[in-house]
Design goal:
With about 250 residues, the chain is of the alpha/beta class. About 35% of the residues lie in helices and about 30% in strands. The protein contains 9 helices and 12 strands. A 6-stranded mixed sheet has the order 6-7-8-3-9-10, sandwiched between helices. It has a 4-stranded antiparallel sheet with strand order 2-1-4-5, with helices on one face. It starts with a strand and ends with a strand.
Length: about 250
């Protein structure tokens, strides 16, 4: 599904990502973990071809450097941490923006695009918000609408930057359950996360970043350990098995 070879990203003279090589299978749920400044968001933006990078990234066997921006958007959708809109857009109009990669020059949204947008809202449980103004919504509602926009894009790879940040436990779990369902339907999800326990519960693969390098990669049981958390985050923790899922669960040591 995704093949990344020798990925490097620099901002001016500062190298943010160094020699990243990974492969993600179709229908996998990958959590990208690491402290602030580790390169998580930069990693996602590079995969989405939103920033210049060195190395190669292939999605479905196609090198992203060889295809146009609009075509990339048919392969990859990205859900940012937030989406600032100052203009008066309704929710349905925001979701219809996900149909842009399929429109020709000067072409407007058609009936099929509208149908897909409404269906995407229903999948995220946001159908009742269709005619609300996007900028007046709560963080949890906005996040679900942005997920619907990504679904309307009909891409097989979905990238998410901190999908549960600033959300209460209910909305955080609601989003992670939805992502898990999308993965079961064949979509590949790669999400940067700060919540280690949430990533452990829902992701089937964890990639640990530190100073722009991979320092851990594997299933949660292999990667989320007391030693790795100490090394990456610099904090002492206790790691136990979750009583229900038996996945690693991290407890901070006061």
């Amino acid at each position: 599904m995704i093949k990344i070879d020798n990925l490097d990203v620099s901002y001016d003279t500062l190298k943010v990502l160094r020699d990243i090589s990974l492969e993600f299978k179709k229908g996998s749920f990958v959590g990208i973990l690491g402290p602030n400044g580790a390169g998580k968001t930069t990693f996602l933006r590079a995969i989405a071809s939103l920033i210049p990078f060195e190395g190669n990234i292939e999605v479905l066997g196609r090198n992203l450097k060889d295809i146009q921006r609009k075509e990339i958007a048919r392969l990859i959708s990205m859900v940012p941490q937030d989406f600032q809109v100052d203009l008066e857009f309704k929710v349905i109009e925001i979701v219809l923006m996900g149909r842009y990669p399929y429109l020709r020059l000067f072409e407007f949204d058609g009936k099929e695009d509208y149908k897909i947008a409404v269906e995407s809202l229903e999948i995220t449980g946001s159908g009742h918000l269709k005619d609300r103004m996007f900028k007046n919504m709560s963080s949890g509602e906005r996040r679900m609408v942005l997920l619907a926009k990504a679904l309307a894009q009909k891409a097989e790879l979905m990238l998410l930057d901190e999908p549960t940040s600033n959300l209460d436990p209910y909305h955080g779990i609601e989003i992670m359950r939805l992502l898990k369902k999308l993965v079961a339907d064949g979509i590949t999800v790669v999400a940067s996360m700060h919540n280690i326990n949430m990533a452990s519960l829902y992701c089937d693969r964890i990639v640990l970043l530190k100073h722009g390098r991979i320092v851990g990669d594997g299933v949660p049981e292999e990667v989320i350990t007391r030693r790795s958390i100490k090394d990456v985050y610099g904090v002492d923790v206790i790691v136990e098995k979750h009583p229900v899922t038996h996945k690693p669960h991290v407890f901070l040591v006061p």
